[in-house]
User: What shape does this take?
Amino acid sequence: MALPAGMEMISDVLQFIGVFVSFSIAYVAYRGVRRIHSSSLLRLTAAFVFLGFGFAVEGFVGLSQVIPNLPFPTMAVVAGLLFETTGYFFLAFSHALDVMMSKRMGVALLIFPVISFSGAQLIDILSTLSFYFVLYGVVETLYSYARTRKPDTLLIAVGLAMISLGTFVQWLSLLYLNVDVLLLLQIIMKEIGLLILFIPVLNFAVGRVRLDGTI
Amino acid sequence: MGVTTLLRKGNLSYTRMSKLLSELVGSGLLLELNGDKISKYMISDKGTEFLAVYHQFEDFAQSFGLKL
Assistant: This one.
C-alpha cells in the first residue's frame, strides 16, 4: 500500500486539509451545542471530531513513510481507519435518529447489500463499514433535500456521495494492491467531498452570526 | 400577548403552557408584563437574539440534512 514519494507527499497534504475541514465543521457544530443545546449538532460534532482525528492519524502515518525518522506502528493505520469509520457512523446515526423520530421506515440501510465481510482483515472491514455508513448518509440527505429543497442540502449530498465513492475506491485499493493510483484517487475524492461539506461552514462564517454566537 | 392567544397558537394545555412560560421568563427569553387582571408576555432582546442564533444553526444542521 505504498505510493511513490511525490504522490505520498500530496496525499499527506490532502489528509491534513481533511483535518482542517473536519475540525472546522466540528467547531461550528460545537458552538451550536453550546448555544442552543442541540443533540443533532452534538452528534455532528462527534462525527467530525472522529473524522478529523482519523485524517490526522492517517496523515501522520503517511508522513512516517516519507520521513524515515518518524516511526509509526502498523496499528496506527487501523486506528486511523477506526476513527474515520466511527465518524461516518455518527453521521449515519444522526440520520437514523431523525428517521426514528419522524417515524418513517428506515429501510435505506437494507437496500444496499453488505459488500464484503469475508476478508478477515480489520482494514477491509472498516473500509466496508465506512462505505456503508456514508452511503446511508447520502440517501438520507437526498431524502431531506426532497423535503426541504434547500440547495445546500443537495450540495452536502453530493459531497457525501464523493466521500462514499472515495471509501469505495479505498476498498478497491485493498483488492488491487499493485494499482498505486487508487490510493491517491480515494484521498482526492474524499477531499473534494469534504471541501463541499465545508460550504455550510463558510455560509455560517459570512452570515450575520459570528462563530462566538453573538450577532 | 396574553395566555389565551398563546394557548390557541401553541395548541398546548394550560398546565404545559404555564410551565413553559415560567421557564422562558426564568431564562430571560420572555418578559412578563403584569397587568391588573392578566399577565401579558413579550419576547425580550435576549429571546430575539436566541431566535436569530437558533435559525442560523438550524440552517447549518439542515444543510447536513438534519433537524435540530
